[in-house]
Amino acid sequence: KINGERLWDSLMEMAKIGATPKGGVCRLALTDLDKQGRDLFVQWCKDAGCTIRVDKMGNIFARREGRNPALPPIVTGSHLDSQPTGGRFDGVYGVLAGLEVIRTLNDLNYETEAPVEVAVWTNEEGSRFAPAMVSSGVFAGVFDLDYGLSRKDQDGRTMGEELERIGYSGPDDASHAAHPVGAYFEAHIEQGPILEAEDKTIGVVTDAQGQRWYEVTFTGVESHAGPTPMNRRKDALLGAARVVDAVNRIGLKHAPTACATVGMMTVYPNSRNVIPGNVFFTIDFRHPSDDVLAEMDREMRAEVDRIAAEIGLDCQLEQIFYYKPVKFEESCVAAVRKGVEEGGFSVRDMVSGAGHDACYLARVAPAGMIFVPCIDGISHNEVEDAKPEWIAAGCEVLLHAMLQKANE
Amino acid sequence: KINGERLWDSLMEMAKIGATPKGGVCRLALTDLDKQGRDLFVQWCKDAGCTIRVDKMGNIFARREGRNPALPPIVTGSHLDSQPTGGRFDGVYGVLAGLEVIRTLNDLNYETEAPVEVAVWTNEEGSRFAPAMVSSGVFAGVFDLDYGLSRKDQDGRTMGEELERIGYSGPDDASHAAHPVGAYFEAHIEQGPILEAEDKTIGVVTDAQGQRWYEVTFTGVESHAGPTPMNRRKDALLGAARVVDAVNRIGLKHAPTACATVGMMTVYPNSRNVIPGNVFFTIDFRHPSDDVLAEMDREMRAEVDRIAAEIGLDCQLEQIFYYKPVKFEESCVAAVRKGVEEGGFSVRDMVSGAGHDACYLARVAPAGMIFVPCIDGISHNEVEDAKPEWIAAGCEVLLHAMLQKANE
Ligand SMILES: NC(=O)NCCC(=O)O
Ligand SMILES: NC(=O)NCCC(=O)O
């Protein structure tokens, strides 16, 4: 029913904004390129007859009116920001699948009972500004507005300043209370290897893993790499290196479901012949069980303390982001299943390894997610890829699921 | 005999150029601040009646003429560049101690037989541009001029371009053949803890450790930290972390004399929720025995190969800098000893842990070094410090040693 070619073409058009040499995208949140992507999306939505609202977190809502404008809208969406070396599908697929649903409804002159909206959530990736999903988090009341607007990038610029700068600091309250959501659906690439390995086209997402993110700073003593004897060193990088290995051990111990990653590390002063005096790094823990996540937390803290003590380092450790495992609402999961049946696609249930805006929306509205495979399970990588038929199938399921909810 | 207060005041005046909040100095090679430091030194030398020569590597020679201008000059000196978070003494002490020798000779109207010169060697630290001591190396014929001028910083700017930019690309050949040196002395802070711990004022440097510097790049697969199972990862940072620990083990195995350091590490794409696909890091090995240094090299290569294989990483490993342990010339060591006796200072023999321009000069001229203590053995750190009486004592010894050689 949906037009897979039109959807694919729009994805490829959007992928030109911030295109990278290896076929990926670098469109970091609230940069000029993010603004270009937003402008293009807004233009496409206006062309499709939608009205546009922007809230104080820069979240964009494109609305196709329903027969009963008083009903809360059925919303879909995702994000347009990317990782520094991101792909052409992560996030943008969910946004443009939503636009394709609206375009399809227009083609059919189909009037839904409830309004239908496509949302773009600001800074989902959490790469330029930590944490992830900060603006859907504000919308869901998990974070307050001040917290959201004061998130800083590595250069000290805040989300609030950057929203102003690119012209996406809107007038509306960034809150589900001001803008109730009837139901929320999100289509996304799996970003993992399971669907492709099992040759399934659709993943019905029933749950999402819990996450804990940390920032650690080790401080030792900067000193000369030549005349400073091994036994007089307080090498902050040696400490950080041992934590990287410990984090990996903790991940392996709770595998196959746990994930444990050090993704970011900054060494200071970062000079070849200076023993590093200061190292900043991050830890990312995930598990579908909140208890195991708490156990990983305890194990990691013990390791960090032990390692800091054995080298004589000062340690600052802060958990900057935490959310419990998410269970998606039964009626939305059922609507997705029904959509899959109607399309006749191969399917399996999935637990999402990544966080998604849907995880926060699930706190304030019935929510569900649709996964499609990606090549080799690779995401957060310029080579991220997906087959056009997967992309079309997920959008088809999204249309069906939204129509069920919009006409309930 | 020398004027300790004048020397100290000049050191403090120079330390204003690139002063850092914690009392140190950031005067990276061939930056605008390096130019300011050079300009000040040149002005002071002109005020002291010296003539100035600059060679193609930007090495500066300030000359006080001797009774016999045909004799090769007795040269002293060191460097004005610093680490990113460097101190007020590393390098600049050797330069300004040389200036103080000339000022003292002027005060006394003392005419030496051979000319006396103070040299400033470009980019000794090897921090902005690797390797260390590149311009004294070119002067000594260890590197050719093209190699020296083509050294690049992290932003891809070359030493040649930067010398032009700050106006210190001189006309003279950067070669001992074009400018023979009668003898070379260098005063320097120890940069290690031994002299202070043993309450000695002067270290007579008999040897310098050998060094090997490496660059390593590990390449794995960038992927999403959430949905990528532990057993499907090729985490470049995990590999680098294990090498940091292995390098430390190799250093400890050959302690107390060995040093082994990873000082620099850059993680790519450096995003919290991305498994690092690429990590660049450096290794710095030192030992007074060339055989042990070769053994450390073999051990490290075996570890790097093992670690890369166990994680499935591609590995590029390059040794970018190597020099054998240095033995300083007997007559110069004797001249330093004699200077210590005349001053009546407490003394011990030392092996230099750091590399110095004197190590390369030793290949083309009789050379010797004088160490003075530094507080807590700390160097390559903003808090680097020394007592005025140590600073004065080292300069006194330098004066005596140079006069012996200049009047031989
Ligand atoms: N989907 C996605 O890549 N989200 C980023 C937040 C996370 O790391 O889970
Ligand atoms: N003296 C000094 O800090 N030299 C830098 C070269 C080295 O790392 O040994």
TrEMBL record, chains A, B:
Zn(2+) 2 binds at D90, E125, H380. SUPFAM superfamilies: Bacterial exopeptidase dimerisation domain (SSF55031), Zn-dependent exopeptidases (SSF53187). GO terms for molecular function: hydrolase activity, acting on carbon-nitrogen (but not peptide) bonds, in linear amidines; metal ion binding. Pfam families: M20_dimer, Peptidase_M20. Its cofactor is Zn(2+). Residues 209-309 form the Peptidase M20 dimerisation domain. Binds 2 Zn(2+) ions per subunit. Belongs to the peptidase M20 family. NCBIfam families: hydantase (TIGR01879), PRK09290.1-3 (NF006769), PRK09290.1-5 (NF006771), PRK12891.1 (NF009527). This is Beta-ureidopropionase. It comes from Caenispirillum salinarum AK4.
